[in-house]
Amino acid sequence: MQKHLSDNKLFKTMGYIDGEWVDASNSAKFDVIDPGNGDIIAHVSELGVAEVKKAALAATKALNIFKKNTPRKRAELLRKWTNLMIENSDDLAKLVCLENGKTYSEALGEVKYAASYLEWYAEEAPRIYGDTLSTQNANNRTYTIKEPIGVCGFITPWNFPLAMIARKVGAAIAAGCTVVIKPAGETPLSALAIAYLSEIVGFPKGVINIVTSNVNTKSVGKELCQNKLIRKLSFTGSTETGKLLMEQCSGSLKKLSLELGGNAPFIVFPDADIDSAIEGILVCKYRGAGQTCVCANRIFVHESIYEVFSTRLIEEVKKFKIGYSLEEGVTIGPLIHQNALNKVQSHVRDAVSKGAQLLLGGKILEKLGNNYYAPTVLGGVTIEMLCSMEETFGPVASLIQFKTEGEVIRMANECNVGLASYFYTKDLSCAYRVAESLETGMVGVNVGAISDCAFPFGGIKASGFGREGSKYGIDDYLTIKSVTVGI
């Protein structure tokens, strides 16, 4: 592992609590596996409930001082952190490649994307405003103050191990909060690396804490929910886990932000620019080997252009180069682990057994390794197949034909989740109608990549609630205090 890095100080394997690098009291470790070749690349501290309690206490003590810093001071810290991430972008990208399996170009893109959130909130911190309100009593003056909500707990996923932390922590720090972060057991190394960079920046002890675990993940998550010192929990992951965490948080009435599962529709209307729509699919569907919560999962193509569209898509997908993440020219890497591979394979088998046509791919690439799956295109898919009903989370494009706008809107919305959706059309009236009709928190019109630090990220229905990024993202880390003064 360390042979790949320019600065081996970024390679950390212990948790980070109260400004100290800590091991488990019983010295327990868990293995971090390179999904591209199955090698063990690190032995990381298996922390537990005791360490969460220690981190929450440290964050509480730090909060009492940190929240009194001026917003401009917090902005300076975030700006320095941003700059250090960019300066170390090559090493950070390689860490993401090795523990996640993303291609180098995708990993480097994630580093820059993550840094953009820290930069964004460095600029937002000084713009936390209160209001002066008119009252019905002429002898009173009323105003509001926005204050940090307190200690925040974060549980982040493996598919964007840097960006999901930065999107949450940037807003929290800008608001004046302190944090306890639980990174995914598959991808703790990049989280620990940026914790090390925060130490260099000069964040006070206890402001940023990292609790690493794999075997103890459930108990650590439960403690983050039930610990009364933690006032807010932000989670990115599956709907099933989100529901459990929400239930566990009920006893302490924590404020919650939940960014949960998706099943994004991607609609290509008959007047769409086909080349542009194909480009959007390639970005939206196959980025990260299809392991993103906002990637296109159900691709609805109008019957009049279906044959042309499917033929063009197959031509472009054939151009992908599948291989190990650090190999030059590779455009798609491995899936994260065997369970992910099994799910993708089961969805493809189910679709074919129910009448779908395997137009391309549909097989494990055993010569490359156990976690590689060929970029796949399925035709003749129906909404009753698993690849339509569930989030596949893999490099499988499932094509569904439709006839009318009303029909495709109904099919797109026939889903219990509502994170992202996409559609392509040249008709301005259609663009407004469909954007307002789709039951998702985010919509891409004639674009396949919607994520941006200025964009409010979040869903509706069983995709959760709360918004991350943008000017709205800081609101979940603030409380409003109302003050009335008699004169």
Automatic annotation (TrEMBL):
GO CC terms of this entry: cytoplasm
Catalytic reaction(s) noted: succinate semialdehyde + NAD(+) + H2O = succinate + NADH + 2 H(+); succinate semialdehyde + NADP(+) + H2O = succinate + NADPH + 2 H(+)
Residue ranges of every copy of the Aldehyde dehydrogenase domain listed in the record: 21-483
Any Pfam family the entry gives: Aldedh
TM region positions: none
Pathway involvement of the protein, from the record: Amino-acid degradation; 4-aminobutanoate degradation
Top EC category: oxidoreductase
An MF annotation (GO) of this entry: succinate-semialdehyde dehydrogenase (NAD+) activity
Keywords for this protein: Oxidoreductase
Catalytic site: 259
EC number: 1.2.1.16
GO-annotated biological processes: gamma-aminobutyric acid catabolic process
Parts forming coiled coils: none
Family membership: Belongs to the aldehyde dehydrogenase family.
Protein name: Succinate-semialdehyde dehydrogenase
